[in-house]
Amino acid sequence: MADDTQPTTDGATVTRPTDASAPTGTQNSTTGPAGLVGLEPTPGVAKPDSLMVVDDVLRKFGGMTAVDVKHLEVQRGAITALIGPNGAGKTTFFNLLTGFDVPDNGHWKFDGQPLAGKSAARVARTGAVRTFQLTKALSRLTVLDNMRLAATQHPGENLFTSLFQPLWKKREAEVTEKALEILGRFKLDTKKDDFAGSLSGGQRKLLEMARALMTDPTMIMLDEPMAGVNPALVQSLLGHVQALRDEGMTVLFVEHDMHAVRHISDWVVVMAEGRIVAEGPPEGVMKDQAVVDAYLGAHHDTDLGDDALLDPEVLKRLEAEEEKR
Ligand SMILES: Nc1ncnc2c1ncn2[C@@H]1O[C@H](COP(=O)(O)OP(=O)(O)OP(=O)(O)O)[C@@H](O)[C@H]1O
Hints:
22% strand; alpha/beta; binds adenosine-5'-triphosphate; globular; Rossmann fold; 12 helices
């Protein structure tokens, strides 16, 4: 397989596998993307190294079934995209898995630990952390304070430390150092004293990701990370997501941007009307008849992966525009 790598606005690199059946960033034959090679692309297929395993999760709103997932396994160390037309149940499913909503039925495990019935805070402490859009309150804090606040959800934080000044002083210094290091990685260090609300759409998304990293997650769950992002920064964001995977993190993301999905996902799971209708490597899944039907049934104008954004000329112009912001 030949890889095509491409630098982004901030130096991160997007690696585009030219053969989707053989993903990149492999560690050994069962874990990470390599473990997905050759798997049967059928809904509910077992993965060789599953970090999350979901069974019979049902969520109804009145008489309407929003989520009805029989079985899903998420491969450790890989990037899995969760896609589907509007109203398919993706966000509800995310909310259920992360303890922000309660199912009518079902159970699921993260790294062997049962999560059903656990609060959102307890789920986050297990290492499954989701990103959130910056709220109004957070927008009024500086970028650095946003990062420091995110660290308070860290499993290592405890009452003992917070009661003794020498301990919390030391901890505060460590947290600030870590925050600056992560901000540097996302090229947000120069913005550390700016209000988060003053950042561009793409920079906000980077900050959301940076905040999640303050808790050292095992799995990061991103809800539409590319939404509202300038196309020049999309490239950069994609590079960062791949870098997290290459460091061994598991990524699960909900996304409408099919360009993003096609170019960074190792595996794609498709939901429609609450159910998983297909899963498999990105190239194959986009051609799956059940997927085409689900999208055509929902909205006819969906772009299932436009490569125009990878045109160097288009990119150069967009990057120049982003620089001016
Ligand atoms: N709190 C709620 N009360 C009633 N119905 C809800 C609630 N939340 C979601 N729904 C319904 O459940 C279904 C699934 O919604 P959900 O937001 O999970 O879909 P989605 O795939 O994330 O859609 P989108 O891509 O548009 O964000 C929709 O029909 C929605 O109207």
